[in-house]
Amino acid sequence: MKVTAISMMLLALAPTGSLGQAFTSDVPRQIYGRVQVVDGTTFEFIKTRQLVRLAGYEAPRLVQSASTGGVTWPVGQVSRAWMILRTLGQNVNCAPIGRDSNKNLIAHCFVGETNLAATAIAEGIGYAFNYPDEPQVLAYFDLERKARGLGFGIWSSPDLSPPWLYNVLPVPDERSGGRTPAAEESLPLPLPVTPDTALSLTQAQGG
């Protein structure tokens, strides 16, 4: 089943309370436009210079390398290149859910109906991951388990350190791969968002 089909099914079954988000002038409802990719998880909208990080997703650090069958490859650069190829010449449509500790937007982002984070996880480009106080997306962990079982991408390199352990100052491991997250703290795979011309300038920003 395609990632987009799973997205629509899970959102339809999800309780509305799990999607609650208090939008303020600091967190737009939508941001739309062309982007410049920074790394495997973050891009900058060209016109507004707004940095956006994909929610529920983490990718290898740019300096990381992996080894598969004796072949060394630049896994961090591959994750960035993947994001460039997915967004190059395309409008990216993001639904922000908040801001991180660096004041960058955290958002579920799409190109057309393609959920960027979900597709990257399904193809073994990165990991299902949430930092403390950020919502979990249960479906992302399901996609990760399938990619791991098939040995896709990052999962073909058994000695590859996840990025939160690779850092000089590692982030505490708050992933839920080994446990079941509480339902009230979790989000389903998000449904694609569409450009909303009815939104005011204070509600929608873009590039």
UniProtKB/TrEMBL annotation:
All copies of domain TNase-like, residue ranges: 29-157
Domain of life according to the entry: Bacteria
A family per Pfam: SNase
Entry-linked InterPro entries: SNase_OB-fold_sf, Staphylococal_nuclease_OB-fold
Region (Disordered): 175-207
Signal sequence range: 1-20
Keywords: Plasmid, Signal
Compositionally biased region (Polar residues): 197-207
Name used for this protein in its record: Nuclease
Species: Agrobacterium tumefaciens
Biological classification of the source: Bacteria, Pseudomonadati, Pseudomonadota, Alphaproteobacteria, Hyphomicrobiales
